[in-house]
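User: I want to check something. If I give you two sequences, will you return the structure for each one separately, not as a complex?

Assistant: Yes, each is folded on its own. Here is the first sequence with its structure:
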Amino acid sequence: MALVTMKELLQDARRRKYAVGGFNVFNFETLGAVVEVAEELKTPLVLGIPERLFKFVDVDTLSAAMNKAAQRASVPIALHLDHGYTYEGVMKAIRWGFTSVMFDGSALSFEDNLKRTKEITRIAHSLGVSVEGELGYVGCYDNNKDINEENLVKPEMAHNFVERTKVDALAVAVGTCHGIYRGGPKLNFSRLSELNSTIDVPLVMHGGSKLTKEDYQSSIKSGITKVNIATDMSMAAGDTIRAELAKNQSANYIHLMSMVKKGVKDSVRRYMLSFDCISKAI
């Protein structure tokens, strides 16, 4: 199937009430794992890589592999820059052929976030590339008690932001957090429903790892159309390596990487089965 924009995928998800998995990859094993599960389950897919990984991996090579995998896949795939923080990072992703970029200005003041997101959206749209913005603070909390009203997105602010930036999707802070949870999430479904009825673009959940199936289902009913998964894929890879070495300390690298791929596939499959996206490939 053709490489598509994230806007196309998320508009369909919003219309048909499901969520697309936004899975970040960091090597060939995780790339293969995610695409193979999407094809197996016939699900649309957002295949991403965050800007912070640029300094750890050979992104020129990995992005070319992502592009090739998407073009030959049997399901629609959007290539996405996750958490782009700089103009340079966003432009690199566009040059690599990504069909979607995220500018994360959530750590900036509202006006600075709006100004920079608006400029990136203007450039990206002129090239046919979708844009995701972020409002609120989806941080890394030591305790779920740190998630409070001040961290959540207010509907009137979200409406103003979307109207002025023209983003295609909006990541909103409604009680999840990045990284490993210490305690459970504090999802505010009523706020999520307010946001969904106030703004006219698909909503995105960051910090989506380790929620319950019921949490995902309620989030989708309340307006979420994409759930980002990254931490749990990395954890699944690490857990797999530790388990294999515990069984056989002389296991070679090729065996370990084949098992990593299997472990990541199992993790990705569990998430996709919770997103109501099975057989939704268009």
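And separately, the second sequence with its own structure:
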Amino acid sequence: MKKIYLLILSSFLLFTSCKTDEKIEAVEAESPFVNFNIDAVPYAKLSTYSFFTGDLKNLNPSKKVIPYEPASSLFTDYALKKRFIWMPESTMATYDSDDKSLNFPVGTVLIKNFYYNTVQPNNTTKIIETRLMIKKVSGWIFAEYLWNDDQTEANLVTGTDFTSGSSKNITFKKSNNDVITTAYRIPSESECYACHKLDNQPVPIGVKPQNLNVSYNYPNGIKNQLQKLVDEGYLQSYPSNIVSTVDYRDTSKPLDIRLRSYVDINCAHCHQQNARCDYRAIRLSFNKTTNLANMGVCVIADEPIDQSLERIITPGNHNKSVMNYRLNSTDESMRMPLLGRTVVHDEGVELLKQWVNSLNQNCP
């Protein structure tokens, strides 16, 4: 009887082991919790990755899905964002330089969720979209997921919808209690590429050491984000003397550093060498803007607005500065940034105004 029991038990274990192996082979799960097959992604549904546990809308990250937040955030029509990094098991990123994105391994996924928590009429929370950047052997690809109204799933945007992009009407309340209705833009693949293009290749924007060298309040305590990546086995090492951006909203920081941090995250990805706006006169990366000419101070604009608006920055006078005009515009032919917003970022405009008016040099 004992021999029969052992025989049945061993057969059961062999059967279940084989079934388990078949399941792993099908999805190639590279961690105990995240499902990822580099040859099959992007999946049709966001839930398939298992990046999040419990109700999907809670965005509660699975093991090894690490939250992050750059020192200053890109403005996207006042949308809030929750960002995460996931990498395949036994892989890690390396440091290149302060102002270049970490050198991520193949299989890395950068996850960015866009949501509002003051959707009218009841101040409800609603996730609009989730954007993934996935690093394949051939390079980074984009995957756009649009959330359903029930907030139970986000579905991959494909075909003509991803080719042409779309808009979604949303009404929300700002922190100053102003209520805004706008046609929130769901980007097309070409629009994603336009902002993320460098040397004619798609690249991440925010995950640079200069932007991540700040603390984050993780569930188990506050820690420097780069050190967190090291501790998680996601980053080899990083230098101790990184020249870092700051939160542009932090009024305890110098005005010029706040403004330079703002234009770095909002504008520098296009206004740099070998990027979309390479032909423009200004260079707005954080490590370039210690030179005021790179910021456009006293520089004649490539496309002046009129005779009173010729210089990109006219010291001491924001009303005669092209940059101020473009940040205040919602006209698609005039506004800057060109993509990613449909409304004016009042706080960003006010920051630029304060900085321009603080300059006291004379232009030749």
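Because they were folded independently, the notes below concern the second chain alone. Residues 138 and 263 are 30 Å apart (CA to CA). The longest strand covers residues 124-136.
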